[in-house]
Amino acid sequence: MSKVLYIKASPRIGRSHSLAVAEAFLASYLEAHPGEEIITLDLFTAPLPPFDGLTVNAKYNIMHGRPHSPEEAAAWRVVEEFIAQFKSADKYVLATPMWNFSIPYRLKQYLDIIVQPTYTFAYTPEAGYQGLVTGKPIFIVSARGGQYPPGSPGEAFDLQKKYLELILGFMGFTDIRWGIVEPTLEGGPEVAQAKRQAAIIQARELAKVF
Length: 210
Ligand SMILES: Cc1cc2nc3c(=O)[nH]c(=O)nc-3n(C[C@H](O)[C@H](O)[C@H](O)COP(=O)(O)O)c2cc1C
Fold this sequence. Notes:
Distance between the termini: 13 Å
Number of helices: 6
Helix content: 40-55%
Shape: globular
Radius of gyration: 18 Å
Bound molecules: flavin mononucleotide
Strand content: 15-25%
Mean pLDDT: 97
Low-confidence stretches: none
Largest sheet: 5 strands, parallel
Number of strands: 7
Order of helices and strands: EHEHHEHEEEHEH
């Protein structure tokens, strides 16, 4: 039985386009894979620790082979819990808005917590950087107020897709699947609803083979 980690990065409960498409994907996924486990992580309500002095020191202690102080060890235990939850999944679904051409700050905070040497990536002078989260697919739904299709002038502004592919690839992901809902603002509410509906239909199909 597979475990799916559903990461919610929109705070717009009940209104969010990315959450609506991700939830349609998960409903279809469960129809096709009955009994599988979905763990939900809402990044706007989860107690994400601040990535502050203690936590940063603990990260550098690991990189430099130094022991933690008791305070650093305590801060690091919280980081380890989020990493353990992340790594325990077999598959991932991420629902995220585009914010300022990239990702919401809570998603960046989460990535700062889980992207850690020796846990989700490794480095040796001989082999360089190696991702440690391998062989697991992720389906990302991204909702955008504007539109940034490949080949358009807007594409250069889409730092979200570039960044997520880069950072997930850094952790070892090679199977990254996308559902894009755009534009959710630029064309007015009717266009947004039509785009959401089209993305839901596509997501329901993708879920059957996820
Ligand atoms: C803080 C903030 C920044 C935003 N920045 C962008 C942006 O850079 N480009 C864009 O196309 N839309 C932007 N939007 C609009 C959202 O991407 C759009 O409303 C999207 O549907 C939100 O996703 P959701 O419906 O899943 O919450 C922004 C919205 C907010 C609240």
